[in-house]
Design a protein that fits this description.
With 533 residues, the chain is α+β, with helices and mostly antiparallel strands. Helices cover 23% and strands 26% of the residues.
Protein backbone atom coordinates (compact mmCIF):
# COMPACT_ATOMS: atom_id res chain seq x y z
CA UNK A 1 0.00 0.00 0.00
CA UNK A 2 2.84 2.41 0.86
CA UNK A 3 4.38 1.80 -2.56
CA UNK A 4 1.05 2.48 -4.34
CA UNK A 5 0.52 5.70 -2.44
CA UNK A 6 4.08 6.81 -3.22
CA UNK A 7 3.59 6.09 -6.91
CA UNK A 8 0.52 8.28 -6.91
CA UNK A 9 2.37 10.97 -4.99
CA UNK A 10 5.14 11.01 -7.56
CA UNK A 11 2.67 11.29 -10.40
CA UNK A 12 4.42 8.61 -12.42
CA UNK A 13 1.28 7.96 -14.45
CA UNK A 14 1.76 11.51 -15.76
CA UNK A 15 5.06 10.59 -17.38
CA UNK A 16 7.03 11.77 -14.39
CA UNK A 17 6.37 15.46 -15.08
CA UNK A 18 6.63 16.29 -11.38
CA UNK A 19 10.05 14.65 -11.32
CA UNK A 20 11.48 17.18 -13.81
CA UNK A 21 11.24 14.77 -16.78
CA UNK A 22 13.24 12.07 -14.97
CA UNK A 23 12.01 8.89 -16.61
CA UNK A 24 15.22 6.84 -16.73
CA UNK A 25 18.85 7.35 -15.85
CA UNK A 26 22.12 5.47 -15.69
CA UNK A 27 22.50 6.69 -12.08
CA UNK A 28 20.75 5.12 -9.09
CA UNK A 29 17.56 6.91 -8.08
CA UNK A 30 16.86 7.90 -4.45
CA UNK A 31 13.23 8.70 -3.62
CA UNK A 32 12.19 10.41 -0.37
CA UNK A 33 8.67 10.79 1.02
CA UNK A 34 8.68 13.10 4.07
CA UNK A 35 5.01 12.41 4.94
CA UNK A 36 4.35 16.13 4.56
CA UNK A 37 7.06 17.16 7.02
CA UNK A 38 9.87 19.64 6.41
CA UNK A 39 13.43 18.37 6.73
CA UNK A 40 15.21 20.53 9.32
CA UNK A 41 18.76 21.06 10.52
CA UNK A 42 17.60 19.75 13.87
CA UNK A 43 15.85 17.64 15.02
CA UNK A 44 15.83 14.68 12.66
CA UNK A 45 12.53 13.50 11.25
CA UNK A 46 11.45 10.05 10.08
CA UNK A 47 10.86 9.72 6.33
CA UNK A 48 10.47 6.95 3.76
CA UNK A 49 13.40 6.21 1.44
CA UNK A 50 13.58 3.99 -1.60
CA UNK A 51 16.60 3.37 -3.82
CA UNK A 52 16.47 1.98 -7.36
CA UNK A 53 19.69 0.48 -8.71
CA UNK A 54 19.49 -2.15 -11.43
CA UNK A 55 23.25 -2.56 -11.68
CA UNK A 56 26.15 -1.47 -13.87
CA UNK A 57 25.25 -0.88 -17.51
CA UNK A 58 21.48 -0.96 -16.89
CA UNK A 59 19.07 1.96 -16.84
CA UNK A 60 17.08 2.79 -13.74
CA UNK A 61 13.48 3.87 -14.32
CA UNK A 62 11.43 6.03 -12.02
CA UNK A 63 8.71 3.35 -12.17
CA UNK A 64 11.04 0.47 -11.17
CA UNK A 65 10.58 -1.20 -7.77
CA UNK A 66 12.89 -0.23 -4.95
CA UNK A 67 15.60 -2.88 -5.04
CA UNK A 68 18.55 -1.44 -3.09
CA UNK A 69 16.73 0.00 -0.06
CA UNK A 70 13.07 0.27 0.87
CA UNK A 71 12.36 1.52 4.37
CA UNK A 72 12.48 4.44 6.74
CA UNK A 73 15.36 6.69 7.73
CA UNK A 74 15.88 9.54 10.14
CA UNK A 75 17.14 12.56 8.24
CA UNK A 76 18.35 16.12 8.81
CA UNK A 77 19.99 18.93 6.86
CA UNK A 78 23.76 18.80 7.31
CA UNK A 79 26.73 21.07 6.69
CA UNK A 80 27.95 24.46 7.86
CA UNK A 81 28.48 27.16 5.22
CA UNK A 82 26.86 24.89 2.64
CA UNK A 83 23.47 25.46 4.28
CA UNK A 84 23.34 28.84 2.52
CA UNK A 85 22.66 27.08 -0.78
CA UNK A 86 19.12 26.17 -1.90
CA UNK A 87 20.23 22.64 -2.78
CA UNK A 88 20.57 21.07 0.67
CA UNK A 89 22.77 18.21 1.82
CA UNK A 90 21.37 15.61 4.20
CA UNK A 91 22.60 13.19 6.80
CA UNK A 92 20.47 10.09 7.29
CA UNK A 93 20.31 6.83 9.24
CA UNK A 94 18.28 3.73 8.30
CA UNK A 95 15.94 2.61 11.08
CA UNK A 96 13.71 -0.41 11.66
CA UNK A 97 9.98 -0.47 12.31
CA UNK A 98 10.43 0.71 15.91
CA UNK A 99 12.95 3.44 15.09
CA UNK A 100 16.15 1.63 16.04
CA UNK A 101 19.10 2.40 13.74
CA UNK A 102 20.24 -0.51 11.58
CA UNK A 103 23.37 -1.16 9.55
CA UNK A 104 22.43 -1.38 5.88
CA UNK A 105 24.66 -1.65 2.77
CA UNK A 106 23.98 1.12 0.29
CA UNK A 107 24.75 0.88 -3.44
CA UNK A 108 27.36 -1.84 -2.97
CA UNK A 109 29.04 0.04 -0.11
CA UNK A 110 29.57 -1.85 3.18
CA UNK A 111 26.76 -1.89 5.72
CA UNK A 112 26.63 1.02 8.17
CA UNK A 113 24.03 3.38 9.63
CA UNK A 114 25.55 6.83 9.04
CA UNK A 115 25.26 8.16 5.49
CA UNK A 116 25.40 11.50 3.70
CA UNK A 117 23.44 12.70 0.69
CA UNK A 118 25.81 15.43 -0.42
CA UNK A 119 24.48 18.19 -2.67
CA UNK A 120 27.15 19.48 -5.08
CA UNK A 121 26.13 23.09 -5.74
CA UNK A 122 29.08 25.53 -5.92
CA UNK A 123 31.06 22.69 -7.49
CA UNK A 124 29.36 22.63 -10.88
CA UNK A 125 31.46 19.70 -12.08
CA UNK A 126 29.86 17.73 -9.21
CA UNK A 127 32.98 15.52 -8.99
CA UNK A 128 35.59 17.38 -6.93
CA UNK A 129 34.91 15.50 -3.70
CA UNK A 130 34.78 12.15 -5.46
CA UNK A 131 38.13 12.83 -7.13
CA UNK A 132 39.90 13.70 -3.87
CA UNK A 133 38.51 10.64 -2.09
CA UNK A 134 39.40 8.33 -4.99
CA UNK A 135 42.99 9.61 -4.99
CA UNK A 136 43.26 9.04 -1.24
CA UNK A 137 42.04 5.46 -1.65
CA UNK A 138 44.52 4.92 -4.49
CA UNK A 139 47.23 6.04 -2.07
CA UNK A 140 46.19 3.23 0.25
CA UNK A 141 44.18 5.22 2.80
CA UNK A 142 40.54 5.00 3.73
CA UNK A 143 38.36 7.73 2.26
CA UNK A 144 34.60 7.89 1.90
CA UNK A 145 33.24 5.75 -0.91
CA UNK A 146 30.83 7.70 -3.11
CA UNK A 147 28.10 7.09 -5.69
CA UNK A 148 26.35 9.71 -7.78
CA UNK A 149 22.56 9.44 -7.64
CA UNK A 150 19.52 11.44 -8.72
CA UNK A 151 17.18 12.51 -5.94
CA UNK A 152 13.40 12.86 -5.98
CA UNK A 153 11.71 14.27 -2.86
CA UNK A 154 7.95 14.31 -2.43
CA UNK A 155 7.48 13.94 -6.18
CA UNK A 156 9.83 16.79 -7.06
CA UNK A 157 13.15 16.32 -8.83
CA UNK A 158 16.07 17.60 -6.72
CA UNK A 159 19.05 16.99 -8.99
CA UNK A 160 22.32 15.07 -8.88
CA UNK A 161 23.58 14.13 -5.42
CA UNK A 162 26.43 12.04 -4.07
CA UNK A 163 25.82 9.28 -1.57
CA UNK A 164 28.82 9.36 0.80
CA UNK A 165 29.95 7.28 3.72
CA UNK A 166 30.09 9.51 6.80
CA UNK A 167 33.47 9.50 8.52
CA UNK A 168 33.33 7.31 11.60
CA UNK A 169 35.08 4.44 13.33
CA UNK A 170 34.14 1.15 11.71
CA UNK A 171 36.00 -1.88 10.39
CA UNK A 172 35.00 -0.80 6.87
CA UNK A 173 35.67 2.91 7.41
CA UNK A 174 38.28 4.26 9.84
CA UNK A 175 39.49 0.88 11.02
CA UNK A 176 40.72 1.56 14.53
CA UNK A 177 39.82 0.09 17.91
CA UNK A 178 36.49 0.92 19.49
CA UNK A 179 36.84 3.14 22.55
CA UNK A 180 34.33 2.30 25.29
CA UNK A 181 33.52 3.83 28.70
CA UNK A 182 35.58 1.13 30.44
CA UNK A 183 38.75 2.01 28.49
CA UNK A 184 40.31 4.34 31.06
CA UNK A 185 43.79 2.95 31.72
CA UNK A 186 46.76 1.34 30.02
CA UNK A 187 46.73 0.41 26.37
CA UNK A 188 42.94 0.46 26.22
CA UNK A 189 42.94 4.21 26.81
CA UNK A 190 45.41 4.97 24.03
CA UNK A 191 43.32 4.41 20.91
CA UNK A 192 40.00 4.64 19.15
CA UNK A 193 39.95 8.42 18.62
CA UNK A 194 38.89 10.42 15.57
CA UNK A 195 39.36 14.15 16.01
CA UNK A 196 39.26 17.07 13.62
CA UNK A 197 40.47 20.60 13.07
CA UNK A 198 37.42 22.57 12.04
CA UNK A 199 35.32 25.69 12.22
CA UNK A 200 33.09 26.12 15.24
CA UNK A 201 29.89 26.57 13.21
CA UNK A 202 27.75 23.51 12.62
CA UNK A 203 29.77 21.29 14.95
CA UNK A 204 27.86 21.35 18.23
CA UNK A 205 30.83 19.79 19.95
CA UNK A 206 33.28 20.81 22.63
CA UNK A 207 36.51 22.47 21.45
CA UNK A 208 40.04 22.59 22.66
CA UNK A 209 42.84 24.77 21.36
CA UNK A 210 46.44 24.29 20.37
CA UNK A 211 48.90 25.36 23.03
CA UNK A 212 50.91 26.97 20.23
CA UNK A 213 48.08 28.85 18.49
CA UNK A 214 44.69 29.47 20.14
CA UNK A 215 43.18 29.99 16.69
CA UNK A 216 43.69 26.30 15.87
CA UNK A 217 40.51 24.49 16.93
CA UNK A 218 40.43 20.78 17.74
CA UNK A 219 37.17 18.88 18.12
CA UNK A 220 36.14 15.36 19.11
CA UNK A 221 34.46 13.57 16.22
CA UNK A 222 34.08 9.88 17.01
CA UNK A 223 33.44 9.30 19.83
CA UNK A 224 31.84 12.72 20.30
CA UNK A 225 32.60 14.81 23.35
CA UNK A 226 29.42 13.68 25.12
CA UNK A 227 30.48 10.04 24.69
CA UNK A 228 33.98 10.53 26.10
CA UNK A 229 34.98 10.42 29.75
CA UNK A 230 37.16 13.26 31.05
CA UNK A 231 40.16 10.89 31.28
CA UNK A 232 39.71 10.02 27.60
CA UNK A 233 39.34 13.64 26.53
CA UNK A 234 42.47 14.50 28.50
CA UNK A 235 44.43 11.63 26.99
CA UNK A 236 43.92 12.64 23.35
CA UNK A 237 44.43 16.33 24.16
CA UNK A 238 47.70 15.50 25.92
CA UNK A 239 48.84 13.29 23.05
CA UNK A 240 48.28 16.04 20.48
CA UNK A 241 50.15 18.43 22.76
CA UNK A 242 53.08 15.98 23.02
CA UNK A 243 53.21 15.79 19.24
CA UNK A 244 53.15 19.58 18.85
CA UNK A 245 55.75 20.03 21.59
CA UNK A 246 58.08 17.50 19.96
CA UNK A 247 57.59 19.19 16.59
CA UNK A 248 58.52 22.58 18.06
CA UNK A 249 61.55 21.26 19.93
CA UNK A 250 65.16 21.70 18.86
CA UNK A 251 65.44 17.95 18.26
CA UNK A 252 62.18 17.75 16.29
CA UNK A 253 63.76 15.80 13.41
CA UNK A 254 65.32 13.09 15.57
CA UNK A 255 63.92 9.79 14.26
CA UNK A 256 63.48 8.32 17.75
CA UNK A 257 62.60 11.23 20.03
CA UNK A 258 61.25 13.86 17.62
CA UNK A 259 57.84 14.25 16.05
CA UNK A 260 57.89 10.77 14.43
CA UNK A 261 57.56 9.26 17.89
CA UNK A 262 53.97 10.51 17.87
CA UNK A 263 52.91 10.76 14.21
CA UNK A 264 52.62 8.54 11.15
CA UNK A 265 54.90 10.11 8.56
CA UNK A 266 53.37 8.64 5.42
CA UNK A 267 49.89 9.87 6.30
CA UNK A 268 51.26 13.40 6.77
CA UNK A 269 53.07 13.19 3.42
CA UNK A 270 49.99 12.01 1.53
CA UNK A 271 47.73 14.52 3.27
CA UNK A 272 50.10 17.32 2.24
CA UNK A 273 50.17 16.11 -1.37
CA UNK A 274 46.39 15.97 -1.72
CA UNK A 275 45.81 19.29 0.05
CA UNK A 276 48.38 21.07 -2.09
CA UNK A 277 47.25 19.46 -5.33
CA UNK A 278 43.65 20.47 -4.64
CA UNK A 279 44.52 23.74 -2.90
CA UNK A 280 41.15 23.70 -1.19
CA UNK A 281 40.61 27.07 0.44
CA UNK A 282 39.63 25.33 3.68
CA UNK A 283 42.60 22.96 3.57
CA UNK A 284 44.50 22.09 6.75
CA UNK A 285 42.31 24.32 8.94
CA UNK A 286 38.78 23.04 8.41
CA UNK A 287 37.27 19.60 7.82
CA UNK A 288 40.72 18.19 8.64
CA UNK A 289 40.47 14.78 10.28
CA UNK A 290 43.02 12.83 12.30
CA UNK A 291 42.78 9.51 14.09
CA UNK A 292 44.72 7.42 16.56
CA UNK A 293 44.60 3.69 17.24
CA UNK A 294 45.80 1.94 20.39
CA UNK A 295 49.55 1.93 21.06
CA UNK A 296 49.57 -1.86 20.75
CA UNK A 297 48.38 -1.42 17.17
CA UNK A 298 51.06 1.11 16.28
CA UNK A 299 48.83 3.94 17.43
CA UNK A 300 50.35 7.16 16.18
CA UNK A 301 48.56 10.33 15.16
CA UNK A 302 47.45 9.70 11.57
CA UNK A 303 46.14 12.27 9.11
CA UNK A 304 42.82 11.63 7.40
CA UNK A 305 40.37 10.73 6.11
CA UNK A 306 40.18 13.42 3.44
CA UNK A 307 36.98 15.47 3.42
CA UNK A 308 35.32 18.50 1.81
CA UNK A 309 36.93 19.38 -1.52
CA UNK A 310 34.00 21.19 -3.16
CA UNK A 311 35.97 24.47 -3.13
CA UNK A 312 39.20 22.85 -4.33
CA UNK A 313 40.91 22.57 -7.71
CA UNK A 314 40.57 26.28 -8.52
CA UNK A 315 36.95 26.67 -7.39
CA UNK A 316 37.31 29.53 -4.89
CA UNK A 317 37.80 33.22 -5.65
CA UNK A 318 39.50 34.37 -2.44
CA UNK A 319 42.76 33.98 -0.54
CA UNK A 320 44.63 32.96 -3.73
CA UNK A 321 42.96 29.52 -3.78
CA UNK A 322 42.30 30.02 -7.50
CA UNK A 323 46.01 30.35 -8.29
CA UNK A 324 47.96 27.33 -9.53
CA UNK A 325 51.13 28.77 -7.97
CA UNK A 326 51.84 29.24 -4.27
CA UNK A 327 51.44 27.15 -1.13
CA UNK A 328 48.10 26.49 0.56
CA UNK A 329 49.83 25.59 3.84
CA UNK A 330 50.93 29.25 4.03
CA UNK A 331 47.28 30.38 4.18
CA UNK A 332 47.75 32.11 7.55
CA UNK A 333 50.02 34.69 5.96
CA UNK A 334 47.91 35.00 2.80
CA UNK A 335 44.65 35.64 4.70
CA UNK A 336 45.76 36.52 8.20
CA UNK A 337 42.31 37.60 9.40
CA UNK A 338 40.71 34.19 8.86
CA UNK A 339 39.90 31.80 11.69
CA UNK A 340 40.58 28.97 12.31
CA UNK A 341 44.28 28.95 11.52
CA UNK A 342 46.35 26.26 9.89
CA UNK A 343 48.57 24.59 12.52
CA UNK A 344 52.29 25.39 12.41
CA UNK A 345 52.99 21.75 11.63
CA UNK A 346 53.52 21.90 7.90
CA UNK A 347 56.13 24.63 7.76
CA UNK A 348 58.04 22.88 10.53
CA UNK A 349 57.82 19.45 8.88
CA UNK A 350 59.33 20.84 5.69
CA UNK A 351 62.33 21.97 7.73
CA UNK A 352 63.02 18.26 8.35
CA UNK A 353 65.14 17.28 5.36
CA UNK A 354 64.20 13.62 5.72
CA UNK A 355 60.50 14.51 5.58
CA UNK A 356 61.09 16.79 2.60
CA UNK A 357 63.04 14.10 0.75
CA UNK A 358 60.41 11.46 1.50
CA UNK A 359 57.72 13.87 0.33
CA UNK A 360 59.60 14.45 -2.91
CA UNK A 361 60.06 10.71 -3.43
CA UNK A 362 56.39 10.01 -2.82
CA UNK A 363 55.28 12.75 -5.23
CA UNK A 364 57.65 11.62 -7.95
CA UNK A 365 56.47 8.03 -7.53
CA UNK A 366 52.77 8.91 -7.71
CA UNK A 367 53.29 11.22 -10.69
CA UNK A 368 54.33 8.12 -12.61
CA UNK A 369 50.96 6.48 -11.94
CA UNK A 370 47.53 7.79 -10.94
CA UNK A 371 48.74 11.36 -10.23
CA UNK A 372 50.13 11.79 -13.73
CA UNK A 373 48.31 14.50 -15.65
CA UNK A 374 46.96 12.04 -18.27
CA UNK A 375 45.66 9.75 -15.51
CA UNK A 376 44.00 12.65 -13.67
CA UNK A 377 42.40 13.88 -16.88
CA UNK A 378 41.19 10.37 -17.73
CA UNK A 379 39.55 10.04 -14.30
CA UNK A 380 37.78 13.40 -14.72
CA UNK A 381 36.59 12.55 -18.24
CA UNK A 382 35.24 9.20 -17.05
CA UNK A 383 33.37 10.79 -14.13
CA UNK A 384 31.94 13.49 -16.40
CA UNK A 385 30.82 10.85 -18.90
CA UNK A 386 28.89 9.08 -16.14
CA UNK A 387 27.00 12.34 -15.53
CA UNK A 388 26.40 13.09 -19.21
CA UNK A 389 22.68 12.35 -19.17
CA UNK A 390 21.98 13.50 -15.61
CA UNK A 391 23.83 16.84 -15.61
CA UNK A 392 21.39 18.59 -18.01
CA UNK A 393 18.48 17.67 -15.72
CA UNK A 394 20.42 18.92 -12.70
CA UNK A 395 21.04 22.30 -14.31
CA UNK A 396 17.42 22.65 -15.38
CA UNK A 397 16.45 22.21 -11.74
CA UNK A 398 19.33 24.40 -10.57
CA UNK A 399 20.03 26.88 -13.42
CA UNK A 400 23.43 28.03 -12.20
CA UNK A 401 25.61 27.40 -15.26
CA UNK A 402 26.93 30.79 -16.33
CA UNK A 403 25.97 32.22 -12.93
CA UNK A 404 28.17 33.17 -9.98
CA UNK A 405 27.66 30.99 -6.92
CA UNK A 406 29.60 31.67 -3.70
CA UNK A 407 32.56 31.31 -4.13
CA UNK A 408 33.26 30.48 -7.77
CA UNK A 409 36.39 31.81 -9.42
CA UNK A 410 35.63 30.42 -12.88
CA UNK A 411 32.11 30.63 -14.32
CA UNK A 412 31.61 28.27 -17.23
CA UNK A 413 28.71 28.70 -19.61
CA UNK A 414 28.37 24.93 -20.06
CA UNK A 415 29.05 21.81 -18.05
CA UNK A 416 31.88 20.90 -20.41
CA UNK A 417 33.53 24.28 -19.82
CA UNK A 418 33.48 23.56 -16.09
CA UNK A 419 35.11 20.18 -16.70
CA UNK A 420 37.73 21.64 -19.04
CA UNK A 421 38.62 24.36 -16.56
CA UNK A 422 39.09 21.81 -13.79
CA UNK A 423 41.36 19.71 -16.01
CA UNK A 424 43.44 22.72 -17.08
CA UNK A 425 43.75 23.94 -13.49
CA UNK A 426 44.91 20.56 -12.21
CA UNK A 427 47.47 20.27 -15.00
CA UNK A 428 48.88 23.68 -14.11
CA UNK A 429 48.90 22.98 -10.38
CA UNK A 430 50.63 19.61 -10.75
CA UNK A 431 53.23 21.17 -13.04
CA UNK A 432 53.97 23.85 -10.45
CA UNK A 433 54.33 21.23 -7.72
CA UNK A 434 56.71 19.28 -9.99
CA UNK A 435 59.02 22.29 -10.02
CA UNK A 436 58.52 23.58 -6.48
CA UNK A 437 58.18 20.66 -4.07
CA UNK A 438 61.20 20.66 -1.75
CA UNK A 439 63.53 17.74 -1.14
CA UNK A 440 65.31 15.42 -3.51
CA UNK A 441 64.76 11.82 -4.48
CA UNK A 442 67.73 10.20 -6.15
CA UNK A 443 67.36 6.45 -5.61
CA UNK A 444 70.43 5.70 -7.74
CA UNK A 445 72.74 8.05 -5.86
CA UNK A 446 75.32 6.55 -3.49
CA UNK A 447 74.86 7.96 -0.02
CA UNK A 448 77.84 9.47 1.80
CA UNK A 449 78.52 7.48 5.00
CA UNK A 450 81.17 7.42 7.71
CA UNK A 451 84.47 5.55 7.38
CA UNK A 452 84.54 5.56 3.61
CA UNK A 453 81.64 3.13 3.06
CA UNK A 454 79.16 4.21 0.42
CA UNK A 455 75.77 2.48 0.15
CA UNK A 456 73.17 2.43 -2.56
CA UNK A 457 69.68 1.31 -1.43
CA UNK A 458 67.23 1.11 -4.29
CA UNK A 459 64.44 1.46 -5.14
CA UNK A 460 63.76 3.91 -2.36
CA UNK A 461 60.84 4.31 -1.64
CA UNK A 462 60.12 0.59 -2.15
CA UNK A 463 57.07 -1.64 -2.18
CA UNK A 464 58.51 -5.15 -1.78
CA UNK A 465 62.33 -5.44 -2.10
CA UNK A 466 65.33 -3.19 -1.53
CA UNK A 467 68.73 -3.91 -3.11
CA UNK A 468 71.63 -2.86 -0.87
CA UNK A 469 74.92 -2.33 -2.70
CA UNK A 470 78.15 -1.06 -1.14
CA UNK A 471 81.82 -0.61 -1.95
CA UNK A 472 84.29 -3.41 -1.10
CA UNK A 473 86.31 -1.37 1.38
CA UNK A 474 85.91 -3.93 4.15
CA UNK A 475 85.75 -7.69 3.94
CA UNK A 476 82.02 -8.25 3.33
CA UNK A 477 81.87 -11.22 5.66
CA UNK A 478 82.48 -8.88 8.60
CA UNK A 479 79.37 -6.85 7.97
CA UNK A 480 75.82 -7.20 9.21
CA UNK A 481 72.78 -5.34 7.90
CA UNK A 482 70.38 -4.12 10.60
CA UNK A 483 66.97 -2.67 9.81
CA UNK A 484 64.95 -0.94 12.50
CA UNK A 485 61.68 0.96 12.81
CA UNK A 486 61.72 4.67 13.55
CA UNK A 487 61.04 3.70 17.17
CA UNK A 488 64.27 1.66 17.18
CA UNK A 489 62.69 -1.81 17.13
CA UNK A 490 64.86 -4.37 15.33
CA UNK A 491 63.19 -5.67 12.17
CA UNK A 492 66.04 -7.75 10.75
CA UNK A 493 69.71 -8.53 11.30
CA UNK A 494 71.38 -10.22 8.33
CA UNK A 495 75.05 -11.21 7.84
CA UNK A 496 76.37 -9.92 4.52
CA UNK A 497 78.70 -12.22 2.64
CA UNK A 498 78.56 -10.34 -0.63
CA UNK A 499 78.74 -6.71 -1.66
CA UNK A 500 75.03 -6.68 -2.46
CA UNK A 501 71.93 -8.05 -0.82
CA UNK A 502 68.28 -8.07 -1.89
CA UNK A 503 66.12 -7.61 1.19
CA UNK A 504 62.40 -8.42 1.21
CA UNK A 505 60.38 -5.88 3.22
CA UNK A 506 56.99 -6.17 1.59
CA UNK A 507 55.46 -7.55 4.80
CA UNK A 508 56.19 -4.37 6.75
CA UNK A 509 53.73 -1.59 7.44
CA UNK A 510 54.17 1.53 5.30
CA UNK A 511 56.53 4.05 6.82
CA UNK A 512 60.14 5.01 7.37
CA UNK A 513 62.82 2.49 8.43
CA UNK A 514 66.51 2.88 9.16
CA UNK A 515 69.33 0.61 8.11
CA UNK A 516 72.87 0.25 9.41
CA UNK A 517 75.89 -1.68 8.14
CA UNK A 518 77.91 -2.62 11.17
CA UNK A 519 80.73 -4.82 12.36
CA UNK A 520 80.17 -5.52 16.04
CA UNK A 521 79.93 -2.17 17.80
CA UNK A 522 81.24 -0.16 14.86
CA UNK A 523 78.71 1.39 12.45
CA UNK A 524 80.06 1.85 8.93
CA UNK A 525 76.94 3.05 7.14
CA UNK A 526 73.46 4.23 7.94
CA UNK A 527 70.51 5.56 6.04
CA UNK A 528 66.75 5.47 5.68
CA UNK A 529 64.37 3.57 3.45
CA UNK A 530 60.67 4.16 2.96
CA UNK A 531 58.09 1.40 2.62
CA UNK A 532 55.21 2.74 0.56
CA UNK A 533 51.66 1.43 0.39
Amino acid sequence: MKRILLLLLLGKVCLGASAQSLVSTNLPIVILDTYGQTILDDPRIVVSMGIIDNGAGLLNHISDPFNDYDGEVTIEIRGSSSQQYPKKSYGFTPVDSVGVKVNIPMLQMPAENDWVLYAPYPDKTMIRNSLAYALARDMGHYASRTRHVELVRNGGYRGVYELHEKIKRDKNRVDIAKLTPVDTTGDELTGGYIIKIDKTTGSGTQLWYSAFDPKVHFQYHDPEDTELLPVQQNYIQDYVNLFETALQSAGFADPLTGWRKYADELSFIDFFILQELGRTVDGYRSSTFLHKDKDSKGGKLTMGPMWDFNLAYGNADYCAAYDTVGWQYQFNSICSNFTPHIPFWWDRLLQDTVFANNLRCRWDQLRQSFLSTPALHAWIDSAAAELKSASPRNFVKWPILGQYVNWNYFIGQTYQEEIDYMKDWIAGRASWLDSQLPGSCLPSAMAEVPNGIRVNAWPNPFSSHVMFEFDRQLRPEKLELEIRTIAGKLVERQPLNESNYSWHGGHLSPGVYFYMLRDGTRVFARGRIVRMR
